[in-house]
Amino acid sequence: MTTQPQPATIVAVINDEEAADPVVQRATELGFERSARVVLYDVGARVSPLESPLPTGFASDGPDEGAPQLLTAEDLDAAGQAPLARRVRALVEAGIDAYGWLPDNVTPEDLTDYARAIGATGVIASPDLDPNPEELTKAGLAVETVGAH
After folding, report:
1. Looking at the 3D structure of the chain, how many domains does it have?
2. I need a labelling partner for 48 at 20 to 30 A (CA). Which of 17, 56, 107, 113 fits?
3. Residue at 1 is within a domain
4. 79 falls within a domain
């Protein structure tokens, strides 16, 4: 039996600012060009410095399950992240396999760990977000920055 290769996965590091627009646009282009899954990694999604933006165990797959690694637009709506849910929904409606993620921490190590966990091949970000391209490249990820400083 032959197995189909996994499609490429691209992590687009965004925030709730307009600076996210060029990143989402480039991720959309790559999603179509490479038939890639796109994950919008929202570093601006924090509810407060003391709260995780992720759904609790009771709001996700059940007690002790934790949040799934790929959040659908419905998951994001349930987590109170309507702006990110709208972006994900728009990508899905355009024909891209798209999800969101709400990181607890916004360090390059956390981004790298997440990208590895979901099998990502590349990261796109605006230069203002500075996900430390050198560290990500060392981790085997292709890194692209888009937009202005």
Report:
1. 1
2. 113
3. no
4. yes
Helix 20-34 crosses helix 82-93 at what angle (to 10 degrees)?
30
> Per-residue pLDDT for the chain (149 aa), expressed as one digit of tens each?
455 456 799 999 998 777 789 999 999 999 999 999 999 999 987 655 545 555 554 344 444 455 678 999 999 999 889 999 999 999 999 999 999 999 988 888 899 999 999 999 999 998 876 667 777 888 888 889 887 65
The DSSP symbol for 37 reads: E
- Read off the pTM: 0.83
Which range marks the domain in which residue 78 is found?
9-145
Q: Dihedral (C-alpha) 52, 108, 136, 34: value to the nearest 10 degrees?
A: 20
CATH number of the domain to which 137 belongs: 3.40.50.620
